[in-house]
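User: My instructor asked us to take a sequence, write out its structure as tokens, and then describe one feature of it. I'm not sure where to start. Here is the sequence I was given:
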Amino acid sequence: MRNASNTPVWATVVWRALAIWLPIAAAATGLAGIVYVTAQQSLRLSSDDPQIALARRTAARLDGGATPASVVPEQVDLATSLDPFVLVLDADGRLLASSVLLRGQMPDYPAGVFDTVRRRGEDRVTWQPESGIRAATVAVPWHGGFVVAGRSLELTEQHIDQLGLLVGAGWLATLGLVAVAAVLAALLGPPPVWPAVSLGPWRIPHAASPGTT
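Assistant: Let's start with the prediction itself. The structure tokens for your sequence are:
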């Protein structure tokens, strides 16, 4: 079957369906990206909240006269544990007490963080002591130096991965549904008086009038 411009009807339908689908697909892609980034950042930022409270509480205890050894919780291994940990350091960044190990050894915390703490009063850092192991940490000052509180990001990163799968599945489903709707709209056809659309070397012809062969 061909229309008055000698173009196969199926080609007319495909071109018109693409003209409908492409802008909606682009908008859906942008929206999916915004949703993912917003939710991902919310999950990551909220993972700092327990460490902020722990670091400030520990610093207050130290300022109140507690010893560094008395304020650190039970020792944890960052490679296997999801429990929070605390480091207490002096004003030069030397370790005074710690509750974190990595495979039985004390990992080095980045000293540059303390320069930021001196300027801003707090710093929040994703600490990666080795590949595949990341922790959300918060550093705050106390009168004798610095307190760092942290916790593994393993659960947060699992949630972010699940979020990515959900957003991706929703995006693909949306594109599929829009494609079906676009084909149906193209089959129903706009009024035959609509002009053809030119896209450079490609040209979307007029829709065929009902009954045209």
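For the description part of your assignment, you could build on this observation: The two ends are 5 Å apart (CA to CA). Try explaining in your own words what that tells you about the chain.
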